[in-house]
Design brief:
three-stranded parallel beta sheet; 214 residues; single chain; 6 helices; alpha/beta; five-stranded mixed beta sheet; elongated; 15% strand; 32% helix
Length: 214
């Protein structure tokens, strides 16, 4: 940016960085995911999120805000203990270097130790379901029998989990097409008003959520 090169941020953007961006509507995705759990009857809903070192990343802050606002809109209490944070090691390590079975395990285990554990969890991203499911099973519980899980991204792993993960799918092809379009228009000198494009996600219902009756 300092050298005048055109930059497009894809999937997420950073607060205070004046550059073009193409991302899914992370706020809407989180709001819809949380309301889906509420519609199933869940009232104790948790959210595993990042720690404060990534709070300036749009996908993290907007998904948290969408989760919180969905609770408040439906007159459900926002409880800080229901929002465990990933460790710095988790959020600053490339996915290839992480042990998938540990992703989400510590945070899910902490939720299960609460006096009133959640009946459903909204995950910051799909891969967290791997460790979360292990933690739930290690505590003699099942998904979705005891706890429902929903993620975001529709990562390839989501459909191979046991049970397959319900998730909010990002429009990957549209993200790519719009990102290239922004760069091409910029290079061609075509003025655009929409330099920060947001795209809708889609709910993919699989087998990790079920209705809950108190």
């Amino acid at each position: 940016l300092e050298k005048g090169l055109p930059v497009v941020q894809i999937d997420k953007y950073f607060t205070g960085l004046e550059a073009m961006s193409v991302a899914c509507d992370n706020y809407d995705a989180a709001f819809a995911a949380t309301e889906y759990l509420i519609a199933l009857g869940h009232r104790r809903i948790a959210h595993i999120t990042s720690n404060d070192t990534l709070r300036n990343v749009s996908s993290v802050s907007e998904r948290f805000a969408g989760y919180r606002d969905a609770l408040l809109k439906n007159k459900l209490e926002f409880r800080k203990e229901y929002v465990p944070e990933l460790t710095r090691n988790c959020v600053h390590t490339t996915m290839a270097d992480l042990k998938l079975q540990s992703l989400g395990y510590r945070e899910m285990s902490a939720l299960l130790k609460l006096a009133a554990p959640p009946t459903a969890v909204f995950l910051l991203f799909d891969e967290l379901a791997v460790g979360a499911i292990h933690a739930i099973n290690d505590n003699g519980l099942t998904v979705p029998g005891d706890i429902s899980l929903i993620g975001v991204n529709n990562s390839e792993i989501a459909s191979y989990l046991e049970p397959p993960l319900t998730t909010m799918a990002q429009p990957i092809q549209e993200l790519a097409v719009n990102a290239v379009g922004l760069i091409v228009d910029h290079l061609a000198g075509r003025r655009r008003d929409d330099l920060k494009v947001k795209l809708k996600t889609k709910l993919i219902v699989r087998e990790s959520c079920r209705g809950y009756e108190a």
